[in-house]
Design brief:
By secondary structure, the protein is α+β, with helices and mostly antiparallel strands. The chain is built from 21 helices and 17 strands. Helix 6 packs across helix 7, helix 6 packs across helix 8 and helix 12 packs across helix 21.
């Protein structure tokens, strides 16, 4: 075999690499669908020649295959993002891709938006739709209070799924109900329609009237509850993942049945679905020992789901529309007076439509708003340090790149503090003692363009400082004065139990890495590497995560404070007509 280029392409399985050839002979240029069968590829496939090349998208590797002479060209950004052993994207439906929560975790940060803002701002719509995939729900307010409007809400992100209840259903007291939902009775946390195969994955509830005494809504994160069950009673968890349960519904015109476990897992053991509805469980016909084991585990899980700290209580007002993942969140309702006025309309949709809409919104968006934040608020001072906020973030990104971090972590380091100037608490307020959620604000903003690989380390960025102080002796004393003050404001170090809880979170290890680069960038004695490569880093990272950017994050080398451009460029600066970024001030 001839000498390979600098990129270790021989690490890639040859059949996999050939199957992913992007050329027009192998893939339809419009749809991206493959034009060949895997059985049509030569059985004795091997690399013949491999050379470096430059394409319009950037550096690439060209491969000529033996024995058929086929030519393939792979962008380095694609190879870096998909190399064997790299971060796995996994199944977006499983618990390891979600932010699990208890009620208190959402204090002050409910995923909500106004209807007009949701319709008019693609960025807002992307952020709030992402919360359905990440947290399991979103809440829209100000939705017009007219019958049938819930169907219009569903059609903003997907397609209505019609059932035996019709395209939409009325949740109110009915004279002859075929379901307890159409009574005034209390309903405990449950999954809707567990007797369907497949179960509706999204449910919408639009409030038209709610003047009754009672009738408050509740949500429980079923994935968080399942994780708690696995931790507290592994045997019960195991029983509920392997015991098929008959869910049954019958009325005069319908008979439905689905046999599924209460907790559904994928082949790797990750929770993918929770089906829990005590009203719809039929009669188990299993050996007596298995029935006894099931009922013991079923009761344990049922009691766990009723723990008050797990349930987020909501009172829907007219114009509110709750949209939630019916395969993850369990919803509940308190009893209300039968003669009280309470009328909700609901319908079902599916997660794949919502995920598709979100992906298209992200694909159509650009990183231009980030460039504007770097040029505007990012030019302000950084917590009294000798660099601006934008320069500090560029330094952190440079350190990540110098350490050989993967692209998603370079992006995370580069953008870790974007929440400081994206609507979160400002640096001055932070230094005056105000606790802040700038990491969450930044992660919510970045969700417009990036997936959990980037947003999760950013979200956990603040917690990682407390983690490092708890597990690494002397780390606290090495932090800058501003960092130490921030640490005191945000609650000191973690207890051993909190350390273990943090370390188990998805993205925790990456968050610790970002935290280290952040603190290194604040160290005035640490050498500052050149930021020469960073303009392409954000672009490469975006491309590697399936996004596109018309304009990379700017090249900006740290300068003395007296020579930095202010938010309004001084007379010695001129904006680059291609990037709109100010050139450096003249000496």
């Amino acid at each position: 075999m001839p000498a390979l280029p600098t990129f270790p392409i021989d690490d890639f399985p040859v059949m996999w690499l050939r199957d992913n050839c992007p050329c027009a002979d192998c893939r339809d240029p419009r749809s991206g669908q493959k034009l060949f069968q895997i059985s049509a590829l030569p059985a004795a496939l091997r690399l013949d020649t491999v050379t470096d090349t430059d394409e319009a998208e950037g550096p690439a590797v060209e491969v000529i295959w033996a024995p058929d002479g086929h030519r393939s060209t792979y962008p380095l950004t694609w190879l870096e993002a998909n190399r064997p052993g790299g971060p796995a994207t996994g199944d977006r439906r499983t618990d390891d891709r979600k932010e699990l929560w208890k009620a208190d975790d959402l204090t002050g940060r409910l995923p909500q938006a106004g209807w007009d803002e949701y319709l008019g701002e693609p960025g807002v719509r992307a952020r709030i739709l992402d919360s359905v995939l990440r947290l399991g729900f979103m809440l829209l307010s100000g939705v017009p209070e007219r019958e049938g409007q819930v169907l219009d809400v569903a059609e903003t992100f997907g397609y209505v799924r019609e059932t035996n209840y019709g395209k939409l259903f009325d949740v109110r007291v009915e004279p002859d109900p075929n379901n307890l939902a159409f009574t005034s009775a209390r309903i405990t946390p449950h999954t809707d329609n567990p007797y369907r195969d497949p179960v509706p994955t999204i449910q919408l509830l639009h409030c038209l009237v709610n003047d009754a005494d009672g009738g408050d809504s509740g949500l429980v994160d079923g994935f968080a509850a399942a994780a708690l069950l696995r931790e507290e009673d592994p045997e019960a968890f195991d029983v509920l993942t392997r015991t098929p349960v008959p869910f049954v519904f019958r009325d005069a015109g319908t008979e439905l049945r689905a046999d599924r476990p209460l907790i559904g897992t994928d082949p790797l053991g990750r929770v993918r679905e929770v089906r829990f509805n005590n009203r719809s469980i039929g009669t188990l016909r299993l050996p007596a020992a298995e029935v006894e084991a099931f009922y013991a585990a079923y009761r344990t899980f049922a009691e766990l789901l009723l723990r008050p700290e797990l349930q987020l209580d909501l009172r829907l007002s007219p114009g509110d529309c709750l949209v939630f993942d019916n395969t993850r969140l369990l919803h509940a309702r308190t009893a209300f007076a039968q003669d009280g006025a309470r009328h909700l309309q609901g319908c079902y949709a599916d997660l794949d439509g919502l995920a598709s809409t979100l992906a298209v919104l992200r694909r159509a968006d650009t990183l231009e708003p980030l460039a504007q934040l770097f040029a505007g608020p990012g030019a302000a001072e950084y917590l009294g340090e000798s660099v601006s906020m934008a320069e500090h973030m560029l330094q952190a990104g440079a350190r990540a790149e110098a350490d050989g971090a993967p692209p998603h972590l370079v992006a995370g380091a580069l953008l870790h503090d974007v929440g400081h100037f994206a609507g979160a608490v400002t640096g001055h307020e932070l230094m005056s003692g105000t606790d802040n959620r700038h990491s969450h604000s930044g992660a919510d903003l970045l969700a417009r363009w990036f997936g959990p690989a980037v947003t999760e380390p950013v979200r956990l960025h603040v917690a990682a400082k407390r983690y490092l102080c708890a597990v690494e002796p002397g780390y606290h004393s090495r932090l800058s004065e501003a960092s130490q003050y921030t640490l005191r404001v945000q609650g000191g170090v973690m207890s051993p139990a909190q350390v273990a809880q943090f370390a188990a979170l998805p993205g925790a290890a990456d968050a610790v890495a970002v935290r280290r680069w952040d603190d290194e960038a604040k160290d005035p004695d640490a050498p500052t590497p050149p930021v020469r490569a960073l303009p392409s880093v954000a672009h490469r990272t975006a491309a590697g995560l399936g996004q596109r950017s018309r304009r990379p994050v700017p090249r900006r080398v740290t300068q003395p404070a007296a020579r930095r451009c202010r938010p309004v460029p001084c007379g010695g600066c001129a904006a680059d007509p291609r990037s709109r970024w100010p050139r450096s001030c003249a000496p």
